[in-house]
Specification:
The chain has 8 helices and 7 strands, in the order H-H-H-E-H-E-H-E-H-E-H-E-H-E-E. With 221 residues, the protein is an alpha/beta fold. The structure holds S-adenosyl-L-homocysteine, 3,4-dihydroxybenzoic acid and magnesium ion.
Length: 221
């Protein structure tokens, strides 16, 4: 089984179940044209985020790691008209590209982008009394996942979903001797989840256009 096959299957699924989508397709094109790294979630993963937000009936969503706003658009589309999404991004250029992609998707009224290191903007959100959020998507710098998870627990309520991207990393996460800061971040996060009775979670491995990786879904209780 090769990455080529995973990609062909992803394309087959995406052609049938996601289809062409002007706003999402141009978000990816504009992001690539602006030189952003091509590390957004795959289309079928974006649709999973959208489905999870719909299933949850999310009215308030928090995203950590905006990039060009591709996953943001998927998540924000699941919101009711009065819903809101706050997305945190440290790179002003990424935020600017995202702002224009989100406006083109007609979601500017529901999405707020906060520029700054998430480790600074998260306590600001908390101090402002924002939240609780119904769904929190963690997809920024991986060494900080344990910190973002701690903030996610503070900014959620029983019933909130916490989703964390890129937690398998080609299988590198099983290496207990790893000194890769991203692997260390994911492993510490797993230990925090395992020891926290206020969240129940599992992790699913994924293959596809984005290689071999995975995501965690946790339910706050
Ligand atoms: N969620 C996006 C992909 C995000 S990529 C999608 O799937 O479409 C990760 C993003 O996190 C990048 O844009 C990067 O600039 C941002 N980032 C990295 N470190 C950060 C930090 N400390 N605080 C906030 N954002 C950060
Ligand atoms: C990276 C970040 C992501 O969120 C992702 O999905 C893939 C790669 C990265 O920083 O390399
Ligand atoms: Mg990711």
């Amino acid at each position: 089984m090769t990455e080529e096959l995973w990609t062909a299957v992803d394309n087959y699924i995406t052609d049938l179940l996601v289809g062409p989508d002007a706003a999402l397709d141009s978000a990816l094109e504009a992001s690539a044209a602006a030189g952003l790294p091509q590390i957004a979630v795959a289309p079928n993963q974006g649709k999973l985020l959208y489905l999870l937000a719909l299933i949850r009936g999310a009215r308030n969503i928090l995203e950590i790691g905006t990039l060009g706003g591709y996953s943001t658009i998927w998540l924000a589309r699941a919101l009711p008209p009065a819903g809101a999404l706050i997305t945190l991004e440290s790179d002003p250029k990424h935020a600017e590209v995202a702002r224009s992609n989100i406006a083109r998707a007609d979601l500017a009224d529901r999405v707020e982008i906060r520029v700054g290191l998430a480790i600074d903007t998260l306590p600001q959100l908390h101090a402002e009394g924002k939240g609780p959020f119904d769904l929190i998507f963690i997809d920024a710098d991986k060494p900080n996942i344990p910190n973002y998870f701690a903030w996610a627990m503070k900014l959620s309520r029983p019933g909130s979903l916490i989703i964390v991207d890129n937690v398998v990393r080609d299988g590198a996460i099983i290496d207990s001797g790893s000194d890769d800061p991203s692997v260390l971040g994911v492993r510490r996060f797993n230990e925090l989840v395992a020891g926290n009775s206020h969240v129940t979670a599992t992790t699913i491995q994924t293959v596809g256009t984005k290689g071999y990786d995975g995501f965690t879904i946790g339910l706050v209780r």
